[in-house]
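Researcher: Next sequence.
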Amino acid sequence: METITQILQGCIVGDRKYQKVIYERYRGFALKIVFRYIYRYENAVDVVNDGFVKAFNSFAHFTTGSDAENERILMGWLKRIMINASIDVLRKRNMIPEIGGIPDYVWEISDRSQDADGQLLYKELVTLIKELPPIYRAVFNLYVIDGYSHGEIADKLNIPVGTSKSTLSRARIFLRDRLKKMEEAKLCRI
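Model: Next structure:
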């Protein structure tokens, strides 16, 4: 079995065999990132596929590290590509909200980056974030989950920095209220 470094080297030279390995191994990881922005399964799959095409076309610029670091480097790189591909789609649609649920079978797609408890918490978080208005959702995801600064978010979404900050504040209030209601509902059932 090849090491991650050998697989990455194969992708850098454009070997389709290794591209397939990367796609199959990290598709679940990429899909879960995209689902935080795009909620229709068909659209999310399209964004993931577009993201992998962009990744494979850019592998010539990918810099590998040590064998121990390469998977972390790859996952960070893929994450950024998938976020950018998602934001591009949202921008093209003028932040028109996605409607529809995420089918349960999507959560069964393997993602080596999480354990069972992590996947359950992630599913609950994504479901809650889905209730946010689209611009709140995008800013919340970019800032809180993906670690972008308000300046970077402003550039990506073509909004003022102040709008990014106030939108994040409103998103947090919205989520806090939803969590409070969920807790109250749980207490009523007891």
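Model: Confidence is low (pLDDT under 50) at residues 99-111. The domain at 131-190 is CATH 1.10.10.10 (Arc Repressor Mutant, subunit A).
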